[in-house]
Prior knowledge:
- By secondary structure, this protein is an alpha+beta fold.
- The chain has 3 helices and 6 strands.
Amino acid sequence: MIKHIVAWRFKDEALGATRAENLTRARMALEALRESVPSVKHLEVGLDAGVDHDSWDIVLYSEFDDLEGLHAYQVHPEHVKVAQVIGEMRESRAAVDYEV
């Protein structure tokens, strides 16, 4: 199994919307990938609770059977669309993929 975790910090404003509006938009778009990308076995999206002043704004946790499944997700047209939009909203990104 491959676990794929991504965290983003968003800009204060992007695409004519506030950070909060964009976080909601990103969360909905990411959660939709659960249904549109067949290789996704599990997918969660969480918004930061605001406890730590130096935390990330939003995180994606997802699982795939294998590296081929992760690759299929990464090149899937729906994922590519979401990644492009989030790319315009984000200030920074961190990711890790690991096998268990």
